Amino acid sequence: MIEMIKVDISNVWGQVSLPDLLAMEKEVFEAHKTLTEGTGAGNDFLGWLNLPVTEPTEEMKRIMAAAKKIRSDSDVCVVVGIGGSYLGPRAAIELLQGPNHNMGKGKGNPQIYFAGNGLSTRHWNELMRLLEGKDFSVVVISKSGTTTEPAIAFRGLKWMMERKYGTDECRKRIYAVTDAARGALRQMADEEGWETFIIPDDVGGRFSVLTPVGLLPIAVAGIDIMEMLKGAYEAKQAYDLRSFENPVWLYAASRNLLYRHGKVIELFESYEPGFKMMGGWWQQLFGESEGKDGKGIFPATAELTADLHSLGQMIQQGERNMFETMVRFDAPEQKMVIGSDVKNLDGLNYIAGKTLDFVDEKAYLGTVAAHVDGGVPVISIDCGELNDKKMGEMFYFFELSCGISAYVLGVNPFNQPGVELYKANMFRLLGKPGYAK
Ligand code: PA5
Question: Which of 50, 141, 283, 359 has the greatest number of CB atoms lying within 10 Å of its CB?
């Protein structure tokens, strides 16, 4: 069984009180029950609760086979998708393998680039340069199969690929992850004969990382997806606990309580540069789930210690409307020891012989103390050792926290009516048929 993620809320007292938190027990209990019994708003999107498994399904076996093929015949795998069809796999790959995970990679262990997550021509041109002279495959991901950004990128990549390889070989290098029956991508895939993987109807984009949306790109990166799913499976058992001994409860309750006390911004932070996209995934998860009906904690992210040198001033002395959630991991086994220097011109000899993670720990403790003194409550989340299994556990931990937290807030966690409006305007401006001028 997994060792549970630890949530420490000792640094929120002063702003909120223990009796206030304990008074929320019934609310959190009801929210958890509503979620797991499927009696709340959005209950037709609860498929993510059942994604963690310990044995591979037939589709997972196909995912692993496809990943093996891409790894053997491609220098580069381009993953096309946006929002929930992109953030999860990128988060896992960058956290487990680092932001520079593509360095030195090629056939056998391909580089992975993400496309279709914006409309930048510069980004597209860079991708074209990166693909020059390289063998590549494309994994195109879209649940609706009609989202503009990935559709445009995919059209361009398909055109390039057809010219490079011809239609027959192309068929073996395009993999579509989409709806079982609906959408333009499904229609194209069926017509062209590409291998497809299904995003279940009852799983929304931001909860889809443990479907083929996340599993295929993550397997292409060489990460053990069965270990990841095992972590999520064990998390499902462990975090079903119905008391404040459950760290999911502590996180969901304390963030709601802080919100009720005027803390309307949550700054989600880690001391790992590889965590940046995990922050992006978390931001979509909580932002799209909670930001509605005029309510919601604004989900912001920061990378420490880097952003202490930019946002630090604002956190320490700006408007007192935020709290921080700091995510920590065990230090890696391979250490960096700070050396001694005879001249000591940089004055660092006082920490000679110490490891970098020792300094990092003191920076963390020092930051928490300073920010708490400055009136910013801090929730600490200790995830322990970072590995493939932990990744699955973390995804499930935050998804469950989000579902419970949103029900405590009193909103439907599983819809996103607000994201359609910009699209309607864009289509009108582009002159898309059916959108009045
Ligand atoms: O969570 C969501 O619903 C969105 O972020 C979608 O995932 C995003 O818009 C991409 O949609 P699709 O997978 O249909 O292309």
Answer: 141
Residue 421 confidence (pLDDT): 87
236 Cα to the center of ligand 1, angstroms: 25
Res 23: pLDDT: 96
Instruction: Print the domain residue range for 197.
Output: 49-223
Residue-wise pLDDT for 101-112, tens only, equals 999 999 999 999
Q: What angle do CA 75, 81, 83 make, to 5 degrees?
A: 135
- Tell me which of 79, 87, 143, 148 to substitute to probe ligand 1's pocket, judged by most ligand atoms within 8 Å of the beta carbon: 143
Domain tally, the chain: 2
Select which of 105, 164, 172, 423 is catalytic: 423
Structure tokens at 169: 């070989």
What CATH number does the domain containing 322 carry? 3.40.50.10490
Query: Rounded to two decimals, what is the model's pTM?
Result: 0.97
Ligand 1 atom with the smallest distance to the CA of 147 is 15
Expressed in angstroms and rounded, the spacing between residue 428 Cα and the centre of ligand 1 is 20
User: Is the sign of the CA dihedral 383, 292, 84, 231 positive or negative?
Assistant: positive
Mark whether 178 and 257 lie in a shared domain.
no
Q: What is the rounded distance in angstroms from the CA atom of residue 398 to the CA atom of residue 408?
A: 15
For residue 331, the model assigns a pLDDT of 97
What is the structure's pLDDT at 400?
Answer: 98
Residue 437 has pLDDT above 80, yes or no: no
Whether the CB of 85 sits within 6 Å of ligand 1: yes
Which residue's CA is the nearest one to ligand 1's atom 15? 142
Nearest CA to ligand 1 atom 5: 83
